[in-house]
Here is the input.
Amino acid sequence: MSDALMPETLYCYHCGKHHPKEAMRQIATRTGKRWRCIKSIEASRSNHAAREAFGREKTANNQSYRETILRRMANPELQTLYR
Ligand SMILES: [Zn+2]
Here is the structure.
């Protein structure tokens, strides 16, 4: 009964707070095993994914820029259009 009223919490090193054990994941760090909440893990994962997507977009932009230059060099008539 008291267990249900007082859910087990663990200290989250990322937030510096205690969270319910159900929301925690034990992860291995350089200093040993520590508990971190799933929320913060998911948040940093999606940030990482967003950064990766941004990097891919930049690469694609560079690629299309290069293609534009090459197309301009291949078609002298096109060059006049950009002047
Ligand atoms: Zn946390």
The chain has two domains: 2-39, 49-81. The radius of gyration is 26 Å.
